[in-house]
Amino acid sequence: MLLSVIITTYNSEVWLQKVLEGYCNQTESNFELVIADDGSTANTKLIVDTFSHKFQFPIQHVWQEDAGFQKCKILNKAILKTNSDYLLFTDGDCIPRKDFVAQHLKYKEAGYFLSGGYFKLPIKTSNLISLENINNQHCFSISWLIKNGVSISFKLSKLTKITPFAIFMNWLTPTKRSFNGHNTSCFKKDLIAINGFNEEMQYGGLDREVGERLFNLGILSKQVRYSAICLHLDHKRGYASTETWKKNNAIRSYNRKHSVTFIENGLSKYISE
Q: Which of 166, 190, 241, 260 sees the fewest Cβ atoms within 10 Å?
């Protein structure tokens, strides 16, 4: 297979169903899905099971008991379950456009990770998107989005289907080429070299921390936010806190100052499992 898509989720069955429908409609089918489930109830497994027969390769459902926010832990476990040497990371609230996987494969390059973004939807639009809207791709139409609750702004240009414009905007955008957990891809060997996600990190910049250690390793990044498109479904973020942000920022500051690449509390602890 060409690529493994790792999708994080936690008790968001309705959103996950829409996301999986998006992967059913990809122009490139030679990939696997790995669901990184941070302790959801059995309802999530039911959704995953209903989609398993729709893909070239079986969906892998990697689950751990609910012990609070442990996203880095489940991501490390999921990485080791993948069967491809190239990994695409996203979340269970991000619906991919039909060329999402193909764009990541198009721009992948040794020595780089790809940095994508998302188009954030209001809750009204998030709820209105149906599986049919995903199948026919109407939910990626600017006119459809405006009719269904999205405000007119320059941010809508992210949804362009014009390749030269997308390439130009990837070059022009001032947005940093960071490792974004909702839309980023890299070679598995590079993640293994830095021992994956840092399990000392909680919510708030845990993905950016990975990218910063990849930079310290000598890996560069490429911007694809106008090429690899996904829609972000709105939701509450009850797991954010000032304390965890302070702790995470301190870790990142230390890593940057000391050029840290390999961290101790990472995926290596699961290799023998």
A: 241
Tokens found for residue 94: 């991000």
Contact between residue 109 and residue 185 where contact means Cβ atoms under 8 Å apart = no
pLDDT, residue 238, reads 63
Q: What single DSSP character describes residue 38?
A: S
Residue whose C-alpha is closest to residue 4's, from 232, 188, 268, 223: 188
Q: Which two tokens mark 143? A: 């006119």
Task: Give the phi and the psi of residue 75 in degrees, each rounded to 5.
Answer: -65, -40
Amino acid present at 168: F
- Residue 104 pLDDT > 90: yes
Query: Which tokens belong to 147?
Result: 């009719």
Identify the structural domains of the chain with CATH numbers, from first to last.
3-270 (3.90.550.10)
Question: If you search the block for the tokens 């310290």, which residue do you land on?
Answer: 216
87: helix, strand or coil? strand
Q: What is the DSSP string of 99-137?
A: THHHHHHHH--TTEEEE---EEPPHHHHHH--HHHHHTT
CA-closest candidate to residue 198, choices 113, 244, 267: 267
Among 94, 81, 71, 14, residue whose Cα is nearest residue 47: 14
